[in-house]
């Protein structure tokens, strides 16, 4: 029995086409120094840093424009509301600080990749140090962002709650030793400062919720970034993870101490002094009666 060679090469062509398509989808280093897998991670990090940079300065610009509208009494800011001026100025400063931080990180990452290329040119193919630094920065950045969010929610939430409480209280009248009367028209003052106080409170709540949503999205993105970088930590990955975990614990401890001290000085002590002053005034009034 004679066997004839297979004439149908369709399967081979399909496989070859799939291989070629897969090869085209791979992101390759233009200089041909870095492997496609490593370059894909490096490129993704660069894109994320540029995106963070653009978002930060865009939001800063929007805040400055809204500040200019509020200052110039452009509708819907028919009057020069002090509350909105302070709010937009603070927001612009925060995003300017974040944009500056992202700019520094972008420059640092570019320098890190430059040193990595120089090491490859010299025949050093150990990439663990490059990706180790990136991994550590992302972990510590996550710690910093978490505590910054806690600070923002603590003070922004407290200020919003106080403003809403004073607005609901309308006004406060105090009689001091029968001949001194203190009248505090909270609602009138707040409306002069914000125009529509309830609208400001609503915007604040939406802003805080948006920050939480953005924070969750950032955590998910960073989790994916860490998973990609983890593949390039090399043989010392266990040791590197131990060092990073220790650095994370130390950073969390430092933030916790700072948070407790600042909250104690700026919130608890003033509230305690105010409560003590009110209690003394009540006691004195009872004694005079």
From TrEMBL:
Database matches in InterPro entries: MSC_0882-like
UniProt keyword Transmembrane present: yes
Domain of life: Bacteria
Transmembrane feature ranges: 51-69, 81-99, 145-167, 197-221, 256-279
Record key words, sorted: Membrane, Transmembrane, Transmembrane helix
Protein name: Uncharacterized protein
Provenance organism: Mycoplasmopsis mucosicanis
């Amino acid at each position: 029995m004679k066997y004839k060679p297979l004439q149908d090469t369709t399967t081979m062509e399909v496989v070859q086409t799939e291989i070629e398509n897969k090869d085209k989808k791979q992101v390759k280093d233009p200089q041909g120094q870095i492997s496609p897998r490593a370059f894909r991670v490096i490129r993704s990090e660069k894109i994320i840093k540029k995106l963070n940079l653009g978002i930060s300065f865009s939001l800063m610009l929007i805040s400055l424009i809204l500040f200019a509208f509020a200052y110039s009494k452009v509708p819907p800011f028919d009057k020069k509301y002090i509350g909105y001026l302070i709010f937009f100025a603070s927001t612009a400063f925060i995003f300017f600080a974040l944009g500056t931080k992202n700019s520094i990180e972008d420059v640092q990452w570019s320098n890190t990749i430059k040193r990595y290329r120089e090491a490859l040119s010299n025949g050093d193919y150990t990439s663990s140090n490059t990706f180790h630094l990136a991994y550590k920065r992302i972990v510590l950045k996550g710690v910093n962002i978490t505590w910054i969010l806690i600070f923002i929610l603590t003070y922004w939430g407290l200020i919003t709650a106080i403003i809403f409480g004073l607005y609901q209280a309308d006004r406060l009248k105090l009689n001091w030793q029968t001949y001194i009367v203190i009248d505090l028209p909270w609602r009138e003052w707040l409306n002069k400062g914000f125009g529509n106080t309830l609208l400001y409170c609503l915007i604040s709540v939406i802003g805080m919720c948006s920050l939480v949503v953005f924070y969750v999205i950032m955590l998910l993105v960073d989790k994916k970034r860490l998973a990609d970088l983890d593949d390039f930590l090399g043989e010392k990955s266990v040791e590197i993870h131990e060092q990073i975990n220790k650095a994370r614990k130390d950073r969390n401890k430092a933030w916790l101490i700072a948070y407790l001290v600042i909250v104690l000085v700026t919130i608890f002590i003033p509230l305690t002094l105010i409560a003590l002053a009110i209690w003394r005034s009540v006691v004195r009034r009872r004694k005079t009666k």
